[in-house]
Write a structure and sequence with these properties.
- There is one protein chain.
- The chain is α/β, with parallel strands linked by helices and about 270 residues long.
- The protein has a single domain, classed as Metal-dependent hydrolases (TIM Barrel).
- The protein is built from ten helices and eight strands.
- Strands 1-2-3-4-5-6-7-8 form an eight-stranded parallel beta sheet.
Length: about 270
């Protein structure tokens, strides 16, 4: 069985400052052989790049998150572009729109999303998308500024919206939210969507799975149990789910596939 890839993990977050090396070691023991680390603002670019330089299992994505655009300036886009020139980045992200949290400047979110989609298109890179209560608007921008696909992480839209993202070349990320018994729509999507459209993630330290509780700190070593939940929902083996998710991540992020070889592991 292939090693697992955590397709979305904020390993640079302050929540991991005291034990980041042990978190990585625990993930490796759990069979997680790849971790995609998306930056959320310009000030986190260097930390994400440094983690990826130091650890062969870590792969950088750089972007400006919709919930950090309040503090962003337009020159951050020039810094992002230069980083895309100088470094081996697997995706532009985490980028997108968030209409769930009130008080954020929607026009500013749109500006940074569009400009970053333009960069993804210019560098022929996939996008890692943050989409909360804004699926249709993100789809509208993806149709205007076509990129080479990517991943819509922590997907929680409708089946119709899911199909639209898939038609545009995107995989859909499922993680901790899928493990909660009352997450009926997400669990239904995880059960019925084509397996080739699904990738697994943690979004650590956020979106903890059911067994950690609402206040628990998520971490990439939870990936095997998250994969097991998906296997049970779909009536498939753990090996089938792990192999499919890993293959799907590498298909969504082709530069990641160029940079690494995934060994067989036992979970």
């Amino acid at each position: 069985m292939r090693g697992l890839i955590d397709s979305h993990c904020h390993l640079d977050a302050a929540e991991f400052d005291l034990d980041r090396e042990e978190v990585l070691a625990s993930a490796a023991r759990a069979g997680v052989t790849g971790i995609v680390i998306p930056a959320v603002e310009r000030t986190s670019f260097d930390a994400v790049l440094e983690l990826s330089r130091r650890h062969a299992s870590c792969f950088p994505a750089l972007g400006i998150h919709p919930m950090t655009v309040q503090a962003a300036v337009t020159s951050d886009l020039a810094v992002l572009k230069q980083a895309l020139i100088e470094h081996r980045i697997v995706a532009v992200g985490e980028i997108g729109l968030d209409y769930f949290v009130e008080g954020f400047d929607v026009e500013r979110q749109h500006f940074f999303l569009v400009e970053q989609l333009k960069l993804a298109r210019e560098f022929d890179l996939p996008a890692l998308l943050h989409v909360r209560r804004a699926q249709d608007e993100v789809l509208k921008q993806l149709r205007r500024f076509k990129v080479r696909g990517g991943i819509a992480h922590a997907f929680n839209g409708s089946r119709q919206q899911a199909d639209a993202f898939i038609d545009l070349g995107f995989k859909l990320g499922f993680g901790g939210a899928m493990t909660w018994p009352k997450s009926l729509r997400i669990r239904e999507l995880a059960t019925t969507l084509p397996l080739e459209s699904i990738v697994l993630e943690t979004d650590a330290p956020d979106i903890p799975p059911f067994w950690l509780g609402r206040a628990g700190r998520n971490s990439p070593d939870q990936m095997p149990k998250i994969a097991q939940v998906l296997a049970e929902l779909r009536g498939q083996t753990l090996a089938e789910i792990v192999d499919a998710s890993t293959q799907n991540v590498l298909a969504a992020l082709p530069k990641m596939a160029e940079l690494c070889t995934y060994t067989q592991v036992s979970l």
